[in-house]
Amino acid sequence: MANEFIIKNGFHSKGDSQITGSLTSDNLITTHVTASGNISSSANVIGVTGSFDHITIGDTIGRSGDPDTKITFSNDDI
Questions:
Q1: Model-level pTM?
Q2: Mean per-residue pLDDT for 10-18?
Q3: In sequence order, what DSSP letters do the residues of 22-72 get, joined into one string?
């Protein structure tokens, strides 16, 4: 395929970069990730800090290691 390359030991872009298709990582990403569209995951996405304008969840927010502590959302009630 034309313009195809393999990254073996990291990638640093000095300008804008675009990924079309999938981006997979077996390692922890410890720097900034910025997107102008949706970011999806088939595994856990974990963050220590951050801010969001909108979060969509199922019906509960739970605490790891404590299954009895949770916030349950149902029909406009908490």
A1: 0.38
A2: 74
A3: ----SS---S----SS----SS----SS---S----SSEEEETTEEEEEEE
